[in-house]
Design brief:
The complex is a heterodimer of chains A (107) and B (121).
Chain A lengths: L3 E4 L2 E4 L5 E7 L7 E6 L6 E5 L3 E2 L7 E6 L2 E6 L9 E6 L11 E5 L1
Parallel strand pairs in A: 2-10
Antiparallel strand pairs in A: 1-3, 3-8, 4-5, 4-9, 5-6, 7-8, 9-10
Chain B lengths: L2 E5 L2 E3 L5 E8 L8 E6 L5 E7 L6 E3 L7 E6 L4 E6 L8 E8 L8 E4 L3 E5 L2
Parallel strand pairs in B: 2-11
Antiparallel strand pairs in B: 1-3, 3-8, 4-5, 4-9, 5-6, 7-8, 9-10, 9-11
Classes of the chains: A mainly beta (107), B mainly beta (121).
């Protein structure tokens, strides 16, 4: 199975900051990494699929990059509604494993 | 609108069984792979199972293989998860989620609201 490791697991930032969350796969997943945002008590929301393609309706301040085993999610200018937990997921091979999550909190 | 609605959760004793359902609407259910994903209280997301659009291919996490069975009824736009030999560690919110594309590669773009399963004596 492919393991997905996110870093950091938690971070504090302020509105307007630029934030980057990393995700490392234990084996190459080519480009098949997806990113989700989850707020407390809610289902996850797909932000980005296939490394860098923004899901419809997702603000352009979100972006993704990477290939092979190393991927990043960047939020260019944090907004109040962005404080949430973010998960990466590989969909290259089953099981489609998730990272452990990165909790983004207000500083 | 595009929607998934889970049902069937509840409190069950260890070793017993439970069957979850996921009713789909607003899209052509029979053309998309569907997944189950779970989340234990205060924990992260865990991918559980996947079924192809026509039900011919099924994949499972190691943690549920041999105990859980995913299935679908395309005539009723419904997905199922039969959970046998339940363990306390299966306690979670269970979400069904739709593959974005017709295949498996592009993430899960529609999620249900989740149904809670508690395994406890």
């Amino acid at each position: 199975d492919i393991q997905m490791t996110q870093s950091p697991s938690s971070l504090s930032a302020s509105v307007g900051d630029r934030v980057t969350i990393a995700c490392r796969a234990s084996h190459s997943v080519i480009k098949y990494v997806n990113w989700y945002q989850q707020k407390p008590g809610k289902a996850p929301k797909l932000l980005i699929y296939a490394t860098s393609t923004l899901q419809s309706g997702v603000p352009s301040r979100f972006s993704g990059s990477g290939s092979g085993t190393d991927f990043t999610l960047t939020i260019s200018s944090l907004q109040p509604e962005d404080f949430a937990t973010y998960y990466c997921q590989q969909s290259y091979s089953t099981p489609h494993t998730f990272g452990q999550g990165a909790k983004l909190e207000i500083e | 609108q595009v929607q998934l609605v889970e049902s069937g959760g509840g409190v069950v004793q260890p070793g017993r069984s439970l069957r979850l359902s996921c009713a789909a609407s607003g899209f052509t259910f029979s053309t998309y792979a569907i997944h189950w994903v779970r989340q234990a209280p205060g924990k992260g997301l865990e991918w559980v199972a996947l079924i192809s659009y026509d039900g011919s291919n099924k994949y499972y996490a190691d943690s549920v293989k041999g105990r859980f069975t995913i299935s679908r009824d395309n005539s009723k736009n419904t997905l199922f998860l039969q959970m046998n030999s339940l363990r306390p560690e299966d306690t979670s919110v269970y979400y069904c989620a739709k593959s974005y594309s017709g295949g498996y590669y592009h993430g899960l773009d529609v999620w249900g609201q989740g149904t809670t399963v508690t395994v406890s004596s």
